[in-house]
Specification:
The protein has 85 residues and is an alpha+beta fold. Helix content is 41%, strand content 16%. The structure holds zinc ion.
């Protein structure tokens, strides 16, 4: 999985690197540049992160899961702190 937005069946599509979710939008098909697709993806709640030199793409559901995992980790840290004192 290296190219995530590519001309696929004659059109752009985005694929999540975590869950494999694929998004296609009719308005993307008139774009010539993938940067325009990225702008739309960001607006829709997608997230991008560079990992080992490669851009990873996370769909809105995975972004939400990532954020709640982060919240859980922080909550755990707080609980651990107050258990100690
Ligand atoms: Zn996903």
């Amino acid at each position: 999985m290296s190219v995530h937005e590519s001309k696929y069946k004659g059109g752009w599509y985005a694929r999540c690197d975590v869950c494999g979710y694929i998004q296609e939008k009719p308005e993307w098909q008139k774009y010539d540049d993938r940067a325009e697709v990225w702008i739309d993806m960001k607006r829709d709640g997608w997230s991008f992160r560079k990992k080992d030199g490669k851009w990873m793409h996370y769909c809105p559901s995975c972004v939400e899961a990532m954020q709640s995992a982060k919240r859980d980790a922080e909550a755990k840290k707080r609980r651990a702190y107050f258990e100690e004192v």
